[in-house]
Design brief:
Order of helices and strands: HHHEEEEHEEHEEEHHH
Strand content: 25-35%
Helix content: 25-40%
Number of strands: 9
Largest sheet: 9 strands, mixed
Shape: globular
Radius of gyration: 18 Å
Length: 223
């Protein structure tokens, strides 16, 4: 028995970092996020002027009811940040909580995108959960056909622009009071590390192909 335990420990020590512990659920989530990013590009859902300003992007692929709380919604997705050289980081798993209940009025699937327009706001989650509208200023995101002057003014002053997709229709979303937090366990399962700084800087475990593919999609469509 002792020999078996020692052998298992040796195998674990020499196993490739990150990939070996990634769960099918986490890999599937990365694929769904990548599909969502491709869809945003294909449909020109977010104006190029907004994309050019992006210092960080949160993509929440599916908003669902938060347990038994009928007045709240939540969703899991990823955060990617723009690095000093202009490229995009490895994705981190995040959870968005306290999404307004009227975001999903029925059984249809909804998705949420947060565009961080400053480096400070994009990296603020490293220090702990972020309350949208309190820790970072926010406004409904601008869509291609938006003509609302007041919304344009509030967006120009906000650190974060928020978008909602329901049945392939995109609109801006008031997300004040929602909470964004890192999912350390799920990040550890992908990178064998839960340090956001090390993951962003490529100093954690080797990312799985699904994470590399998402990073490559950002590089192609959001240079």
């Amino acid at each position: 028995m002792l020999r078996l335990l020692l052998l298992a420990a040796m195998l674990a020590a020499f196993a490739p970092a990150g990939i070996i512990s990634a769960t099918p659920r986490d890999l599937a989530k990365l694929e769904h996020v990548n599909e969502m990013l491709e869809s945003i590009h294909a449909r020109d859902a977010i104006p190029h002027s907004v994309i050019e300003q992006a210092e960080g992007v949160v993509l929440i692929t599916n908003v669902v009811k938060a347990g038994f709380v009928a007045s709240s919604r939540q969703g899991v997705g990823t955060l990617s940040v723009r690095l000093v050289d202009g490229s995009w980081s490895n994705p981190l798993f995040v959870q968005l909580e306290n999404i307004p209940v009227d975001v999903v009025a029925g059984p249809q699937e909804a998705a949420v995108v947060l565009i961080f327009r400053t480096e400070r706001s994009a990296l603020s989650i490293i220090d702990g959960p972020v309350v949208v509208g309190f820790d970072v200023s926010s406004a409904p995101g601008l869509v291609a056909d938006a003509g609302d002057v007041d919304n344009k003014l509030s967006f120009s002053r906000a650190e974060v622009g928020v978008y909602l997709r329901v049945r392939e229709k995109w609109s801006g979303l008031d997300l004040e009071g929602a909470v964004l937090r890192l999912l350390s366990d799920r990040n550890r399962s992908i990178y064998d590390d839960d340090s956001a700084r090390r993951i962003f800087a490529d100093r954690a475990g080797e990312p799985p192909p699904e994470a590399q593919a998402l990073r490559a999609t950002f590089g192609r469509h959001w240079p």
